[in-house]
Amino acid sequence: MSGHSKWATIKRAKAKTDATRGKVFTKIIREITTAAKIGGADPAGNPRLRLVIDKAKAANMPNDNIKRAIDRAAGPDAAAMEELTYEGYGPAGVAVIIECMTDNKNRTLGDVRTVFSKGGGNLGSSGCVSYLFKKLGTIFFDKSKVDADALSMEAIDAGAEDIKLDDNSVEIITSQEKFEQVRDTLKSKGYEPENAEVTMMPSMTVALSTEDARKAMNLVEKLEELDDVQAVHSNFDIPDELV
């Protein structure tokens, strides 16, 4: 899990910069509209919509934008979005999973395949790497702002599956089903997370050289820049000097 934690640290830092760009809001709006269309416009009865709204608020999306995205799901101009997942291999054979939302799967497949080809990777068949990942909740805290021991005990009592500590952060791992329960319990105890999400977490990571890690990071970033890509997951470990 250490590799996941280091890569997640870089992605969170990058997300703070990306949040200033309109493309981030566009992708979140697409998620909100799709979630509302599938599960209904009431967040209380739609866990998926609740999670996306939390994601929108974490990115400082205005409430009016969130409401419009939900309302759009019931409107006649709501595009029929298809959810697709692609799997493949990056530099040095690392596993990559790409989650997409699109109204044109031929365009999306072509774009993803092109990025893989240019980035030193290969698009694989369905199931080729997904067995290496599990959907879990992850809740990050700045270690300098919390009592790590006390937080860990509270998290375990709330139903957390695992705790990961490094020099800068405390990472609480939960099952997908208990993610909201653990996060909300910790918030009620006064612990404010730096980041909290349900994500695809690797069961094992692959240690890369600095050069291969740079190539893998570049591949992931190029995939994330595609309009139809919502999230990218990989299992590579990053040398400390890159973090």
TrEMBL record:
Q: Which SUPFAM superfamilies match?
A: YebC-like (SSF75625)
One biological process term in Gene Ontology: regulation of DNA-templated transcription
**Which residue intervals define the domain TACO1/YebC-like N-terminal in the entry?**
5-75
> Which GO MF terms does the UniProt record name?
DNA binding
Q: Which residues form a coiled coil?
A: none
> Its principal location?
cytoplasm
Report if keyword Transcription is assigned. Answer: yes
Query: Which keywords does the record carry?
Result: Cytoplasm, DNA-binding, Transcription, Transcription regulation
**Where is this protein localized, as stated in its record?**
Cytoplasm
A single GO CC term, please?
A: cytosol
Q: Where is the TACO1/YebC-like second and third domain?
A: 81-236
Concerning InterPro entries, the annotation shows: Integrase-like_N, TACO1_YebC-like_2nd/3rd_dom, TACO1_YebC_N, Transcrip_reg_TACO1-like, Transcrip_reg_TACO1-like_dom3, YebC-like
- Per UniProt, what is one Pfam family of this protein? Transcrip_reg
- Family (UniProt): Belongs to the TACO1 family.
- The identity of this protein, by name, is Probable transcriptional regulatory protein A2310_02375
